[in-house]
Amino acid sequence: MDEALRAVADPTRRAIMELVRDGERSAGQLADRFPQMSRPAVSQHLRVLADAGLVDVRRDGNRRMYALRPQGLADAAGFIERMWSTQLRRLKEAVENE
After folding, report:
1. pLDDT of residue 79
2. What CATH number is attached to the domain comprising 20?
3. How far apart are CA 84 and CA 94, in angstroms?
4. Closest CA relative to residue 67, chosen from 54, 51, 83
5. Which residue range(s) make up the domain with 51?
């Protein structure tokens, strides 16, 4: 979970995740969406996402194809849900006690 949260803390990586959310894209297609960034920099972001288990990587000839791996955020989503539900329960109790 820690690695996934560190990975999504970066706005570029979140943008990449949104780009691959609805389907696979090649590294080149993704790099084209970030013209202000070098291709090696985009590749580094993709590597961080893959190492965190947030994207799947598939070789297609000499290209690498990236797709979102939604289960990669499952632990983080569960943690946030537990924190959120605890806060809502406390709010509900506070309102009912007034």
Report:
1. 87
2. 1.10.10.10
3. 15
4. 54
5. 1-97
Q: Total domain count for the chain?
A: 1
pLDDT value of position 83: 80
Place of tokens 């946030």: 80
Residue 8 pLDDT: 95
Backbone conformation region of residue 37, classed left if phi is above 0, alpha if psi is from -120 to 50, else beta = beta
Per DSSP, the residues of the chain read -HHHHHHHTSHHHHHHHHHHTTS-EEHHHHHHT-TTS-HHHHHHHHHHHHHTTSEEEEEETTEEEEEE-GGGGHHHHHHHHHHHHHHHHHHHHHHHH-
Output the six-digit token pair for 26: 């090649």
Spans in the chain with pLDDT lower than 70 = none
- d(CA 68, CA 8) in angstroms, rounded, equals 13
